[in-house]
């Protein structure tokens, strides 16, 4: 059995549930530990009583070190700060041999066990961004992506995990500073800093908007394991933003169509349980700015204006 953990609040609930259901569809040999980052998410997740899931509240999880710096971080920054702590909590509290962290906006198209098995006897699994050259942000955002990371309960695994936790508690912010960015730039030198590090070679693990241009996902020779729906958001109930990278029509059909349909299903299910709140993280339309038409024009010229009506995404 494989152990996974993830974290999200009520604004990410539909995405977190879609990730869970995609994982469940691809494998039954798993257990997922979900850290609910607000009470709304915790109450609803508890009510759902999901199979193969343990829900953990902030009250259960947060320790003195995290609480001491919580007020210094934005909501997103605090989630990044907590990432290594969630993995550590799972391994130590539930006496796990290993645990794999998953971003809540991943979606599985294949069994991720093949990625973990690739580690062999190594203790830490990293996934590279594998940027398409035009989008290379390695110098500021990092070589590796905190999206799918495995740590084994070994000396090497826990040494790296404990170091990372302390580093994130010390500094974890949403800007580049002194070679650091969030929880991610810390990973850049891990193949030299720590023993037992394996960098994922399977190209189907870690496909994302910043590298999908390199692959033919429709080819029978390409084994897609998961896609990272980075920067996907609902602007309104019927309009979505797919991010700031070029996406061809084929990939929108293969990736974003099933994802949007699944999110809509999750939203309908949640509304049947609690119609008083929105759990889809609808960002809403921003107030008009005089530069908006110029920005839209520039994005269209670069072919990265990825704003669509949901009907367009989901139509046959």
From TrEMBL:
Supply the name of the protein: Glycosyl transferase
Which InterPro entries did the record assign?
Nucleotide-diphossugar_trans
